[in-house]
Amino acid sequence: MSDLNYEYRTGIGTDIHRLVEGRPLKLGGILVPFEKGLLAHSDGDVALHAIIDAIIGAAGFGDIGMIFPDSDPQFKDIDSKELVLKTRDFIASKNWEVVNIDITIAAEEPKLGPYKMQMKRCIADLMGIDFLNVNVKAKTNEGLGEIGTGLAMSAIATVLLRRRIKRSL
C-alpha cells in the first residue's frame, strides 16, 4: 500500500546592485520610471534575482550564480524574466512547484508603492501561480547605508516549494 504526500521546502534569496545612470530600472519584471537603473551582467532586476536564488536554494541546487553565472556571455543584458522562466522549467523538471513567494525590495527612491501590484501580477504570471500567492513589499533604509543614500537597491525573497512524493507503507 502506498500513500501520496508532499515534501515542502523553503528558500531565502537575496540580491543587491548599484544604481547607475544610463540603464532602465527593472524591478519585479516591470519597467519602473526612474533616472537610474541597476548595474549588473543581466538587467539587474534584484527582485527577480532574489526570487530565483530562493527557488534554486529551496530545491537544493545551490544559488543563482551556479545556474546563471555572470561570467557566461549568454546572460549578458538578459531580461531576468527569461531567467525566471528557465528556473521555473528547471524545477518543474525535478517535480517541484512554487507554492508562494514573499519579497521585500529595499530602495530609497523611487517610491515603489504604485508599482507593487504590477510586480505581483508579473511574478505570479511568470511562475504560473495564483496572484494571491505572491506578496511584494517595499521598504526604505531610512537614509542609512548604500541603499539609504540612493547608491543601491536590494531584495530578499522567501519561497515555499512542494513536490508530490510517493511513500511506501
Explain what this protein looks like in three dimensions.
It contains 5 helices and 7 strands; from the N terminus they run ββββαααβαβαβ. The chain is α+β, with helices and mostly antiparallel strands and 169 residues long. It has a single domain (2-168), classed as 2-C-methyl-D-erythritol 2,4-cyclodiphosphate synthase (60s Ribosomal Protein L30, Chain: A). The longest helix has 14 residues, at 80-93.
Observed structural traits:
single chain, 169 residues, alpha+beta, two-stranded antiparallel sheet, 5 helices
Order of helices and strands: EEEEHHHEHEHE
Count of individual helical segments: 5
Q: What's the CATH class, please? A: Alpha Beta
Largest pleated sheet? 5 strands, mixed
Mean pLDDT: 93
* CATH third-tier fold name: 60s Ribosomal Protein L30, Chain: A
C-alpha Rg (nearest Å): 17 Å
Choose one word for the global shape.
Answer: globular
CATH architecture: 2-Layer Sandwich
Low-confidence stretches: none
Please state roughly what percent of the residues sit in beta strands, choosing from under 5%, 5-15%, 15-25%, 25-35%, 35-45% or over 45%.
Answer: 35-45%
Structural class: alpha+beta
Helix content: 25-40%
Number of strands: 7
Total count of domains: 1
Q: State the fourth-level CATH superfamily.
A: 2-C-methyl-D-erythritol 2,4-cyclodiphosphate synthase
List the helices and strands and how they pair.
Layout: E1 2-21, E2 25-27, E3 30-32, E4 36-38, H1 46-58, H2 64-67, H3 80-93, E5 97-106, H4 116-127, E6 134-139, H5 145-148, E7 152-168
Parallel strand pairs: 5-6
Antiparallel strand pairs: 1-4, 1-7, 2-3, 5-7
Helix pairs in contact: 1-3
